[in-house]
Amino acid sequence: MEVLKIATAGSVDDGKSTLIGRILYDTKSLTTDKLEAIEKTSKQKGYDYLDFSLATDGLVAEREQGITIDVAHIYFSTRKKSYIIADTPGHVEYTRNMVTGASTSQASIILIDARKGVIEQTNRHFFINNLLRIKDVVVTINKMDLVDYSEDVYNKIKADFSELMSKRDYQDQKITFIPVSALKGDNVVNRSENMPWYKGESLLEHLEGLDKKDIYNVGTPRFPVQYVIRPKTEDFHDFRGYAGKVYGGELSVGDNILVLPSKTRSKIKDIYFYDEKYQTASRRSSVTITLENDINVSRGDMIVKEGDLPTIDKQFTANICWMDSTPLEAGSKYMLQHGVNKVLARVEKINHKINPDYSGIEKNVQGLGVNDIASVTFKFNKPLFFDQFKNHRTNGSFILIDTQNNHTVGAGFIQ
């Protein structure tokens, strides 16, 4: 069954956790004990309705404060799809958490409180979706029941957000506007009778109809070798296979390939998935590949189609989201993990800091603090083979690791 991963973003008290809880409730994805716990807690709080946010806010601090702090992953399925929702915090001091949750998502939901409209945090949420090249964004205007389901309010917010869209640099993004009431269930799973002026789909109907072919920026195939398989048994004495995952495109038997970094030429002989042979390995499939001739291929090498080479270099410039309390400064050294490869990286220059509310950039920055986003140039001790993030999300992203404590301190997206 197709799996769709969705990131969510919303300011404090926009109703994001309630929206997710409502989806789980209306799709009958809540277990009996979870539903009983929600009913019991809602009564204890004196509510005359079910507090669906209790279905997602797992930390005690989240339940006490009524806000989302950590990234939670919620799983549910319908007849058409399986879903993973990355419930990310929306407040400014949790920018790194939102980047983490959205970095692997294929679609995104941005919540806006109908009473407040587009606010500064909305700018940040949209900026991060733009930065991470999330192709399908659903702008969900929540709490429509508190503005009497007003079409004028909806149109005003839609116009304000459309003005924000003019500032983006990623023009392939598809934006869909849906008015909802997460508390009442209007247009969440089922279409609402309270907004007859809205002729579009409910939120779940829209997600059900998303085609992953349209969501992904399908680029050229990249096959990082994770493991060399040499069984050395009597039946497979001469077998030499290369296990990994196909990213960005397809590989087929007979394709002329290059092995990086050596640039040795060969041709794909067979493609295996367990003990079955396939003619083509589709994008994001984990397979084992054999080659026509016996050449030297090791873990960390990359198999690409001949004529579709990535950039091979010992430096690049990337947008960084800094996640550590210790500042990033020019001259600092980190372990940079790009796919299965690790290299020692030196910060050559902090080019500028990027204000995630679309207010511009700051130059002459001496260091980056936690949650800062900036353009940074790195140099490595050996070459990497990479793509621009806008062209290839997997081969264009990386993480930075502190060499002293092995903590992940930053996430990067190659420009």
Automatic annotation (TrEMBL):
<keyword id="KW-0067">ATP-binding</keyword>
<keyword id="KW-0808">Transferase</keyword>
<dbReference type="Pfam" id="PF00009">
    <property type="entry name" value="GTP_EFTU"/>
</dbReference>
<dbReference type="InterPro" id="IPR044138">
    <property type="entry name" value="CysN_II"/>
</dbReference>
<dbReference type="GO" id="GO:0016779">
    <property type="term" value="F:nucleotidyltransferase activity"/>
</dbReference>
<dbReference type="InterPro" id="IPR009001">
    <property type="entry name" value="Transl_elong_EF1A/Init_IF2_C"/>
</dbReference>
<dbReference type="InterPro" id="IPR050100">
    <property type="entry name" value="TRAFAC_GTPase_members"/>
</dbReference>
<keyword id="KW-0342">GTP-binding</keyword>
<dbReference type="InterPro" id="IPR031157">
    <property type="entry name" value="G_TR_CS"/>
</dbReference>
<protein>
    <recommendedName>
        <fullName>sulfate adenylyltransferase</fullName>
        <ecNumber>2.7.7.4</ecNumber>
    </recommendedName>
</protein>
<dbReference type="InterPro" id="IPR011779">
    <property type="entry name" value="SO4_adenylTrfase_lsu"/>
</dbReference>
<dbReference type="InterPro" id="IPR000795">
    <property type="entry name" value="T_Tr_GTP-bd_dom"/>
</dbReference>
<dbReference type="InterPro" id="IPR054696">
    <property type="entry name" value="GTP-eEF1A_C"/>
</dbReference>
<keyword id="KW-0547">Nucleotide-binding</keyword>
<dbReference type="InterPro" id="IPR009000">
    <property type="entry name" value="Transl_B-barrel_sf"/>
</dbReference>
<dbReference type="InterPro" id="IPR044139">
    <property type="entry name" value="CysN_NoDQ_III"/>
</dbReference>
<dbReference type="InterPro" id="IPR027417">
    <property type="entry name" value="P-loop_NTPase"/>
</dbReference>
<dbReference type="Pfam" id="PF22594">
    <property type="entry name" value="GTP-eEF1A_C"/>
</dbReference>
<feature type="domain" description="Tr-type G">
    <location>
        <begin position="1"/>
        <end position="222"/>
    </location>
</feature>
<keyword id="KW-0548">Nucleotidyltransferase</keyword>
<dbReference type="InterPro" id="IPR041757">
    <property type="entry name" value="CysN_GTP-bd"/>
</dbReference>
